[in-house]
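Service request form, structural biology core

Requester: graduate student, group of Dr. S.
Request type: structure prediction, single chain
Budget code: on file
Notes: please return the result as structure tokens.

Sequence provided:
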Amino acid sequence: MTRRHILVARPTPSGVDLPAVTALAEACGIGYALLDQGEPTIHDVLDDAARDDLPVTLIPLAVPRDRYLETWIARAVANWKATRARDLDVRVTEGADSTPAFIDVVRALMRAEGEPVTASPRAFRSPAWSRIPDHTSHILVCRGPRCTVYGAAELHRTLRRDHPTALVTPTGCLNPCNLGPLYITYPDGQWHTNALEPLPEKEA
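Core staff response, request fulfilled:
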């Protein structure tokens, strides 16, 4: 039986170079998923594979090896199986840096001359990055692995759409993620857990 192979990347709260991830996946003829912070999620790609009745191999995309990524891939798969009641054959490979070929790639780069760094230091002095954005409130939206599974992406989009004067900031894990998806509003400091409903207008 044909297996479906999926690259799994772990973005930072600032995001991920999605075009690069997409290009790598396309070059390999496979799909991709994001552990957190974005979509498609691991649950999304497993749902697709289950509909097509295809076993899946997940490939952690991190250099150097990222134990957090590997741990949460396994936990996400376990959650998917528990919530979908499916016995899909899902496997995980080791990271790319575990292969001898990767060492050869690094050694080849060591032999390369490289390119001179010509970037300007203006980005550290730009007025655009020295001004606090105008906003009526600040909303921190957890986009950690569990909240991502619980619907944080949709919640994030809804809050940004419904509260254009608020500064809506995605974050990494805010800890009580079994209460997710969740967000915090400031200046009141209110935690909103199990936030399947959008923030009331008066609180934004």
